[in-house]
Structures are given as C-alpha cells and as structure tokens.
Amino acid sequence: MKHMSLTRRLTAALAISSLSAPLLVHAKLNVVATTPDLASIAKEIGGDNIELTMLAKPTEDPHFVDAKPSFIVKLNRADVLIEGGAELEIGWMPALLDQARNTKLAAGAPGHVACAQGIQLQEVPSTLDRSKGDIHAAGNPHYLMDPLNAKIVAQRIADAFCAQDEKSCSVYRANLKKFTDALDAKMVEWERKLAPFKGQQVVAYHNSWLYFGDRFGLKIDLFLEPKPGLPPTPTHLAEVIMKMKADNVRVILVDPYLNRRTAEAVAAKTGATVVDVSQFPGGVKGTDGGYIALMDYLVNSVAQALAGKK
Ligand SMILES: [Zn+2]
Fold it and tell me: Is-contact 47 20, C-beta < 8 A?
C-alpha cells in the first residue's frame, strides 16, 4: 500500500465505492461544501434532509487546502457541490473534480454551485496577472464576511437543493426564511455594536476582511502580506509599522493558519492588539455554532479591541 501511487489508491477507493453503491439507499441529498462557512450555510438550509461533507478544516487556509484521496470519493458520490468560486479553491479543487468523474458536478451543471456568481466581487483586476504571486487574481474571494452576501449565497443554495430534490423544496424554503430572518435581526445588532468605530483603520495579515470592513464602516486596507499569498518581508513590515504609528492603528486581525508571531512582533512595536479571527465557524473558540455564531464573535472581538478592551 505504501508505494501505491496516488492514482492507484484513488482508483482502488473508487472501485470500492461503486461496489458498495447499490447497497446504499440515497434518500438524502448528498452535498459537498469546500469550506466550513459554506458548509454551515448549507446545513442551515438542508437540515436533516442532506448528507453534508465539508472538505477544508476551519483552521486551514482556504487557498491551500490539503487535498486527500477521500475527498475524491466524496465528490464522486455527491449530488451537489458548493464552492466559493472566484478562484478561491483553484489551487486544490480542479484536480480533485477531474478525478472524481462526476458529471453532476461538471462546470455549469446544476449540481455545481459556484457561489461567487451573483456576488458583487471587489478588487477584480482589469487584467489577469498571476506573475506577481497574487492569489486574488479573479477579485477578492472572501465575500462571505459580509452577512448580506451570506444571504445571497443561502438563496442560491436553497435554489440548488430545490432543483435536485423537489419533494423537500418547501423545507429548504422554510429553512432559508428562518436563516435570513435571523441574519436580518442580527445585522441590526452588529451594525449598532460597530457604529462607534466608523472610519477607523484596522490591519489584517491577509486581505480577507475587505467585505467585513465595508459592511461595518471599517477601513481594513493595510496588510502584513505585501500581496495576497506572499509572506511578509522585513521591508514591507517596516512600512506597515510606520503607517500604523502615523495613523494610530491599534488592531491587527490574524486568521488561525497565518503566522501569529509576525503579527505579535508588529503589535509589540506599535502597541496594537492582535485579534484572533476566522472566516470559518470553528476556526476560533466559541464559533462552532455556525455562521451567525461566528459573526457574533467577530463583531464582538473587533469592537472590544477597538474600544481598547482585552
Ligand atoms: Zn485570500
């Protein structure tokens, strides 16, 4: 087994999966979501009517997920694939999809939900250029940090579930309404909590907080990475520190898979507070409850840090 190639292991895994397939009764819609935020929204809509698999872990960088052979088996059996799109998963999904050989999930098929379609993406470059190592070459893909975009995504997921599983459509629609109503109520609370900090600048390690900042009136446009996906350099960090001191910027946001020590070093030189954030439910403590619990955590921790409380 040790020196079997990946392809042979996959072929073996798929052979086993197709052998056992006739024995299984697929009553539930089989759904795969690439990242935990999408999985959380899919769970809200699908409830017990779907069998849900999420591929990336909450503590993994969504741009660089460790692709396992088991993912191919999951994708081979799926009725619906939910992905972020806008090239978020371009580094790891295309090869998996190729090998999964599932026509239901082909690009453009109703079972393949690329959630970025229908979202007003920001920072879409006028010319595509990956030569400089920018991993946001198709625009900024971290749009789910704006709760209003989460509503658009929830709607798309409900539509996709209804198309594949008509008999449960009324359940999906009712769940969608419940989720959307809960988000609307929370939005009022979140906007109120961040209102006192309108216009303030916040530093982030990676440019994944643009949509969050825009929604809640914060300027999150200074980054420890010189470009999305490129590790911080001493020259770049020196510039960031200078700007932070000049503008009295006091908060640095760090996702769990990034180098917290770099953020701590910058904080030590500027008197700023490092705030642990995550785009994914379960990525930081107290956010296992799903998308709304995550946004609650984000709003509260950012508001506390901006107010100067630990
Ligand atoms: Zn990114």
Answer: no
Angle at which helices 36-46 and 147-164 pack, to 10 degrees? 60
Distance 141 CA to ligand 1 centre (A): 6
| CA–centroid distance, residue 220 to ligand 1 (Å) | 14
Q: Beta partners for 274?
A: 252
Cα 5 to middle of ligand 1, angstroms: 31
Ligand 1 centroid to residue 206 C-alpha, Å: 6
- Smallest Cα–Cα separation from 294: which of 144, 106, 175, 152? 144
> With 90 as the cut, is the pLDDT of residue 126 above it?
no
Predicted confidence (pLDDT) at residue 21 exceeds the cutoff of 90:
no
Quote the ligand 1 centre to 58 CA distance (angstroms): 15
What pTM does this model have? 0.90
- Ligand 1 centre and the CA of 1: distance in Å? 36
Query: For residues 20 and 14, what is the distance between their CA atoms, to the nearest angstrom?
Result: 10
Burial grade of 16 (CB within 10 A; 0-12, 13-18, 19 or more): exposed
Strands 80-83 and 273-276 come out as: unpaired
Q: pLDDT tens-digit profile of 43-89? A: 999 999 999 999 999 999 999 999 999 999 999 999 999 999 999 99
How many Å lie between the centroid of ligand 1 and the Cα of residue 228? Answer: 6
Q: How wide is the angle at C-alpha 34 spanned by C-alphas 180 and 17, nearest 5°?
A: 120
What does the alpha-carbon distance between residue 136 and residue 124 come to, in Å, rounded to a whole number?
8
1, pLDDT greater than 50: no
Name the pairing type of β-strands 29-33 and 80-83.
parallel
